[in-house]
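Researcher: Let's try something more involved. This one mixes different molecule types, so please make sure each is placed in the same coordinate frame as the others.
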Amino acid sequence: MPEGARERILGRLRRAPGAEASPSDFGVMERKAWPAAERYPRLKRMMESVKTEFLEATEQSWPQAIFGFLQSQGLSTLLFGPGTAAGGRLSESWPSGDGALLVPYDRPVEEMKERLFDEVDAGFTTTRGGIAETGGLILWPSPEEPRLLSLVPPVHLALLYTDEIYDTFWQALRSQGWAGGMPPNALLVSGPSKTADIEQTLAYGVHGPRRLIVVAVLRGPL
Amino acid sequence: MGAEKRAPAFRPAAAGALKDPELRANFRRAMDGLMARRAALFADPAEWRDLRALGASIRQRTLARLPALLERLESKCAGNGIRVRWAETTEEANALVLEILRARGATRVVKGKSMVSEEMHLNDFLEKHGIESLESDLGEYIIQLDGETPSHIIMPAIHKNRRQIASLFGRKIREAKYTEDVDELTGIARRVLRRKFFEAEAGISGVNFAVAETGTLCLVENEGNGRMSTHVPPVHIALMGIEKVVERLEDVPPLYSLLTRSATGQAITTYFNMITGPRGAGEKDGPAEVHLIILDNGRSRISSDAELSATLRCIRCGACMNHCPVYTRVGGHAYQSTYPGPIGKILTPQTEGVGRRHDLVHASSLCGACAEACPVGIPIAELLVRLRREAAHKSQGSSVLGAGEGRSRWESLAWALWKAAHRSPALYRLVGFAATRFSRILPSGLPILSAWTGESGQAQGLPPELLKTTRRLREAPRPARRTLHELVEEIGVDDA
Amino acid sequence: MSGIRLLQREGLRVVFPRGQTCCAQPAYNCGYHDEARAVARAQIALFRKPHPIVVPSGSCAGMMKRHYPALFEGDPFREEAEAFAARVFELTQFLSDVLEVKWTDRGEKVRVTWHPSCHSLREMGIDEEPKKLLAQLANVEVAPLARERECCGFGGTFAVREPEISAAMVEDKASDVVSTGAPLLLSGDGGCLLNIGGRLAARGERVRAQHIAQFLWERTNGR
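Model: All components are placed in one shared frame. Result:
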């Protein structure tokens, strides 16, 4: 019965094509562009307007900046992917003693689900750049940086290099050649989770993280 | 047991809604807010014009190539490990969902927002089969708690104010203490649902855009419940209508931009989730199985008509209902249709029968505010006129479901008479003469006249306090003493 | 009549073919297209001379300009329908954009409010033209409606098919009119005027509803 459904549906669609196509003019997308030096300030402004927080640092200082941030906020565990270059930097430069603990997300979620949901204060991920037009970060979860890192812990820290910001989402996916192959999961994140379902009043921290902190490594023209 | 249910009727439901001042106030406030937010994001008329034209062309291109694109989507998805199945009817789709869940022994499901699942009445179906299907989007969660259906396609609980929600939570959620604070109410929902995400055995979602080029399912959300539902449980079932496919990845950003700005006046949502497969090799999380169910439910029939296929361009933004003067006043439930508002008025009659739901195609003053706001240029008012024609006439080549079943003998007669009077200049002058000379003797109880003046209690749309002060809805029109034709004759205007 | 006089005063010879009846919009909107086509054909046949066709109603103009050609899809008459449609103008559009009239106000100070009919606005795209004409009248103050672009609820047969909703819409529009403080409501569409004017009268309001053509004629002709 369900087998027949496919053929019947496609058969109906093939028999009577109703709509006509005309070529698409992407000019309006091409025209959205900002000078390189303006992209980070714009991204920051757009993301801050939806309650994203920014922690600015250099290539040298960012692990320490994160450590200090966690301490100042009273956050005691940071989940991360040890297999990335950034994860490696965190591991090797993390201070020992008092302060937040680094927790590696290095095994299937089934083996650490309770810990992930109930005991981790924050999660750290890298990004694949940002989007200036709307504000936003590009994330490609991977075996080294699992999906739930940026979703389950109540705080998400994301590493962004300020010279990796694209004008638009359209430009980003074309420049990075996404059509050549997508990972099982890719996503854009623009801020902490929110809803306006109650009287159209904004409330933050619904199901995703309550806080998004962009660790912005300043690089390139600014 | 199978007896044909009586066709829902819009007018009495609307009349009831009009008498509810709280509902009217909730909707007026909400729609004003949504319209203003959208307008702010489309402040540049040239950009709106160009982006909208691009969006319309992308959707039209999809519809023109629909069968080939669906096949490509299926093939790409399958190659990525997503199992694709097809359903002609909502019954078939429900059966497929059940089969997948039973195969895993899953009885606890979390759901992201999906209008297609509402079309399927999926939650009711699953409940009947002993499966808990819990809505995780806050608005959907609220209405599920109250045993209701969504009244708007983007903001399902828009008809409720915070007091009503506070009262609902206080009554239905055991561990919650009563509060009217929005942050606290949200916190309650977060706590309850976090447990449910953790324990769920399957997650069900809709699809905003399905990209044929790469076999990617795109989901738009602000809360994070969609990602929770699609990444945490071991099984993910995605539901989509056949028209949700887009050809290429590069087609997505323009549509996404039109969607977020039109729906909620946001430049971008919190998350844009792109799923191209189940947990990949080496991945540590993500579902073991991802299923895609492609539903027809009358859409293939719609796509076969060149004019009506524009209905399928819809990206489910809700802008049409936000701008509709009728929707604003009666809210979504009055339509008694999965999809309310202008899009519902053209979609539902085509999927359920234009005779059965001719009430919907006439529930419009054809003001055109919807088409003006539609980001993909669906000419909704024109399609309503077309469907009115289809309701009253069964023509040779028509593929519209239920064509001719909404025909009224009286109305056909009336228009035949009208035609006679207006095709013949002599007859027309006679009618005009009579109207100007003898109108005073017309009984005020004549149906059309009394609907106009509000005799016989038809002033029900008015707020109760006003009915005390005005005897009538409108004063009866007073025809001029002479016709226009007579007047121009008098002043000697040329005839040719 | 005012429309004719306004055009004649600009030096135009106005022709009013006596056989004309109705643009057929009511039948068309109700889906009775065969009947509408028959009446439309009769109208088109009366206007064969290559003169501009000026219509003092935005919804009638919209019907003829936007919908007449498609009514004759597949019919050899379509070519004629298209030629006809190409010559259709709404009155204020013609006065403002084609004739580019320059007027002097001969009336006393007055406040008015303006209601653009939906079809005029959205089918004919007429928004600025009436306002430009009113702006030429020095003693006329235009107080805008709060929800200017919202439908008044007439919608032709909508007012009798869905009287409750239509009632709610006209009530809101009437209240909006009253809050502007203007004693005069202007519109380019007879249906809207009948509808809003009828409600205002039933409410016992002092506001009068008048067609913009008549208003423009009276103001510039010194009554």
